[in-house]
């Protein structure tokens, strides 16, 4: 005899099976919806010419469909979101950056060739000697526009017999783009024209107007006082080149540089990205204006990261050793005070130090001036700026080393110190023979991780010095306090040319260095890779 469900009168095992079936169908519907959404993104990116993003979402959608529809891959469903996130937010940006490093992608070579061609074809120019000075005349709530060519104007043949035009009454409160037909006029209206300040007030509506003459000539606003025929500047040719009507020259697409090039070799912006092979990496090595600053910043980056690890370790270890001193009272208070810098957000501490090191009004220079009569130029002298960075970064990093050293020192058996005391060992012997050897081995992987973090410490440089003072003679934005990561950022986003390709090449080198340090860290941690 079955035990029935009181609400539906169904056996419990049937009710459970129905619930599981509904759950499976709901899951399948959710997966199908996500797959369809990803396919829609694939189509959208493909239509916009972004084939790399289209390929990304195509792979993501296909893998989702396979994993969630095959029973043999059921165990992979739980880890799929993490793997998908790793692919979308880590692996794909990395591959995309490496791909950009082999191109001339920059603010000058940003659009696709089709969009560059369309942008050039949309350009127009004012026909010389065919301007129509205009006046505005009030008619009730509306305004009539009157145009009359100057006596010396050399009009186009299609307009040679007509020099005056007038529009129907217009509402200039409407600033939307409009095309208005104009009619021949014998004479201007009898009323007084509007003053220039009223013309200026209606400038937005006037600029949105396109006036069409009976002959089909389009007139657009060419200044605050006239309309003029605006002609298409470029004409497409069958061989892919463009003819410049205004300057009477031919523009030829150059697939090596990604620009349209004139007969005399001048390039026309904007351009489009093209593959340049190893040119960006070669520039880093071969161009003296880039190689010199790059090597200087490269050396400083390693020195900054290494010295930061050394100084923070020394300060943290000394303080941790003092806090283990048995005769010291109030250890809890000292621990709290020494760890407080770790609790304050780094950007707040950096901005506070930036004010304290101010060369004119900062507390540091006020104290040094009153004691020694000196006012160091912390932000203009390269070596003083680097010293300031190390001081601030040591302050920010020593609490982390303090916590590590405290934990490792407390894990050392007390019996070793007692045995050392029996043998006549003092504090220095205990430090060199017991404490340091026992904490350095487990501390080494953490020191390497700290080195890798400071190797890319962008926030400190950006907020404190901004990379300044600049390196003289550099062809790219480069400063004496820049790290490789901040140098890359300035090339990509602060340089006038925004050379994303060169920045991506440097970012790829940074990745290889950090990846090497990570592998070293794993080796030292005895983790098999």
Automatic annotation (TrEMBL):
A Pfam family recorded for this sequence: MalF_P2
Cell membrane as UniProt keyword: yes
Alphabetical list of SUPFAM superfamilies matching this protein: MalF N-terminal region-like, MetI-like
Sequence intervals crossing the membrane: 25-45, 51-69, 78-102, 297-320, 332-353, 388-409, 443-464, 500-522
Membrane topology reported for the UniProt record: Multi-pass membrane protein
PROSITE patterns (UniProt xref): ABC_TM1
Protein's cellular compartments: Cell inner membrane; Cell membrane
Alphabetic keyword roster: Cell inner membrane, Cell membrane, Membrane, Sugar transport, Transmembrane, Transmembrane helix, Transport
Matches recorded under InterPro entries: MalF_N (IPR035277), MalF_P2 (IPR029345), MalF_P2_sf (IPR047103), MetI-like (IPR000515), MetI-like_sf (IPR035906)
Gene3D superfamilies registered for this protein in UniProt: D-maltodextrin-binding protein, MBP, MalF N-terminal region-like, MetI-like
Family under the similarity heading: Belongs to the binding-protein-dependent transport system permease family. MalFG subfamily.
NCBIfam families in the record: PRK10999.1
Known role: Part of the ABC transporter complex MalEFGK involved in maltose/maltodextrin import. Probably responsible for the translocation of the substrate across the membrane.
Protein name per Swiss-Prot or TrEMBL: Maltose/maltodextrin transport system permease protein
Organism of provenance: Halomonas kalidii
Organism classification: Bacteria, Pseudomonadati, Pseudomonadota, Gammaproteobacteria, Oceanospirillales
């Amino acid at each position: 005899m079955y035990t029935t469900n009181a609400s539906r009168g169904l056996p419990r095992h049937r009710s459970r099976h129905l619930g599981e079936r509904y759950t499976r169908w709901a899951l399948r519907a959710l997966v199908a919806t996500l797959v369809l959404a990803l396919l829609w993104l694939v189509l959208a990116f493909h239509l916009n010419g972004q084939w790399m993003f289209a390929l990304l979402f195509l792979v993501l959608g296909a893998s989702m469909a396979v994993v969630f529809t095959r029973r043999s891959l059921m165990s992979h469903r739980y880890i799929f979101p993490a793997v998908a996130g790793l692919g979308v937010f880590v692996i794909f940006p990395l591959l995309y950056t490496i791909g950009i490093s082999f191109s001339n992608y920059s603010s000058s070579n940003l659009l696709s060739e089709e969009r560059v061609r369309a942008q050039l074809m949309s350009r127009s120019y004012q026909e010389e000697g065919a301007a129509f000075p205009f006046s505005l005349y009030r008619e009730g709530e509306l305004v009539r526009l009157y145009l009359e060519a100057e006596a010396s104007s050399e009009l186009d043949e299609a307009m040679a017999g007509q020099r005056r035009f007038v529009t129907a009454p217009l509402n200039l409160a409407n600033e939307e783009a409009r095309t208005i037909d104009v009619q021949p006029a014998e004479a201007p209206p009898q009323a007084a024209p509007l003053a220039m300040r009223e013309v200026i007030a209606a400038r937005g509506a006037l600029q949105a107007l396109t006036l069409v003459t009976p002959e089909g000539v389009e007139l657009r606003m060419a200044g605050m006082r006239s309309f003029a025929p605006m002609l298409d500047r470029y004409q497409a040719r069958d061989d892919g080149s463009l003819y410049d009507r205004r300057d009477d020259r031919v523009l030829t697409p150059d697939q090596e540089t990604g620009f349209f090039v004139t007969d005399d070799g001048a390039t026309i912006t904007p351009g489009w990205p093209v593959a340049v092979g190893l040119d960006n990496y070669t520039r880093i090595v071969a161009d003296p204006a880039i190689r010199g600053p790059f090597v200087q910043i490269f050396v400083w980056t390693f020195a900054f990261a290494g010295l930061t690890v050394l100084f923070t370790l020394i300060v943290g270890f000394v303080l941790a050793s003092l806090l283990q001193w048995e005769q010291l009272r109030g250890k809890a208070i000292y621990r709290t005070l020494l760890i407080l810098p770790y609790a304050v957000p780094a950007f707040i501490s950096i901005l506070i130090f930036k004010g304290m090191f101010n060369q004119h009004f900062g507390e540091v220079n006020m104290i040094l001036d009153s004691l020694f009569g000196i006012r160091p130029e912390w932000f203009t002298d390269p070596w003083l700026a680097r010293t300031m960075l190390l001081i601030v970064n040591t302050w920010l990093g020593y609490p982390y080393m303090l916590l590590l050293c405290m934990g490792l020192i407390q894990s050392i058996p007390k019996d070793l110190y007692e045995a050392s005391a029996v043998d006549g060992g003092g504090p220095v012997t205990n430090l060199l023979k017991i404490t340091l050897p026992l904490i350095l081995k487990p501390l080494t992987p953490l020191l390497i991780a700290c080195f890798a973090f400071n190797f890319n410490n962008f926030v400190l440089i950006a907020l404190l010095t901004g990379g300044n003072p600049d390196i003289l003679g550099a062809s790219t934005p480069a400063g004496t306090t820049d790290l490789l990561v901040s140098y890359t950022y300035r090339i990509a986003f602060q340089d006038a040319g925004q050379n994303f390709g060169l920045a991506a090449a440097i970012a790829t080198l940074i990745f290889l260095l950090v990846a090497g340090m990570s592998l070293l860290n794993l080796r030292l941690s005895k983790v098999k890779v």
